[in-house]
Design goal:
Layout lengths: L15 E6 L5 E5 L12 E8 L4 E9 L1 E2 L5 E2 L5 E7 L12 E7 L5 E7 L7 E5 L2 E7 L15 E7 L17 E2 L3 E3 L5 E5 L2 E4 L2 E5 L25
Parallel strand pairs: 11-12
Antiparallel strand pairs: 1-2, 1-3, 3-4, 5-7, 6-7, 7-8, 8-9, 10-11, 13-14, 14-15, 15-16, 16-17
Length: 233
């Protein structure tokens, strides 16, 4: 079941950056390195894909709610986005109260799989590799989804809370890129900067976030499918 709670399928092998902006020009960037984005969450924003090989921007979903940037992760190949979000008003899925963790195709928020949460304790996600995801979950609860995952896609609960049981989890990749809210370096060592609502590379404008106005659009068909072939297994 695909869930579109947000109001492309990027080419494989190209790094993507996930950009979230608002009218106050706040930004977070999630680098396709299995990394956590850095900066602050917002109330209204958009997701866009950025191919750092040529700085092409792919517009994506607009979202009215909160995406917890510390609970987000981009798959190493840049195609999937795992995020933890809350939405206290507007249209919701019947299985979601107000908080959930989901996996979507960048740059869209349509959930390929969704894990409902009863609160904001836990829910953060972290990619280990392109087919392995860890999701924070209180150790006294069950991490479950009604959605069918691909046979080779593995999700590990990462137990949190007081005195969590011991568990062996796969090692997470080391992030080779960085962004401090103003300056960043992609994993190819190329620098970029964020200034006055604009994302720049060597002084050249990549995207003017301050000029963007909310324009929610339905996600395309391929954002509802795990695989580029069109199968949803």
């Amino acid at each position: 079941m695909m869930q579109d709670l947000s109001s492309t399928c990027p080419q494989l092998g190209l790094e993507r950056l996930c950009i979230d902006s608002s009218d106050s020009h706040r930004i977070f960037i999630g680098i396709g390195d299995g990394s956590h984005p850095a900066s602050r969450s917002i109330e209204m924003g958009t997701i866009a894909g950025m191919n750092t090989a040529n700085d092409a921007i792919s517009p994506g979903s607009w979202f009215h709610g909160r995406i917890y940037e510390g609970g987000c992760s981009v798959s190493p190949d840049g195609t999937l986005f795992a995020y933890f979000a809350t939405k206290y008003s507007g249209i919701k899925s019947g299985e979601v109260d107000y908080a959930w963790t989901a996996v979507s195709k960048l740059p869209w928020l349509t959930a390929l799989a969704l894990w409902p949460r009863s609160d904001t304790w836990g829910g953060g996600a972290k990619f280990v590799d392109n087919q392995t995801l860890m999701i924070d979950c209180p150790h006294w609860e069950e991490l479950s989804t009604e959605d069918k995952l691909p046979k080779n896609f593995i999700v590990h609960p990462r137990w949190i809370g007081r005195n969590p049981p011991e568990q062996e989890l796969p090692p997470t990749p080391k992030c080779t890129a960085s962004f401090d809210g103003l300056h960043g370096v992609d994993r190819n060592g190329r620098a970029f900067e964020y200034r006055d609502g604009q994302l720049l590379r060597d002084g050249r404008l990549i995207i003017d976030l301050g000029a963007m106005l909310p324009d929610p659009q339905p996600s395309p068909d391929h954002a509802h499918m795990w695989h580029a072939s069109g199968t949803n297994l």
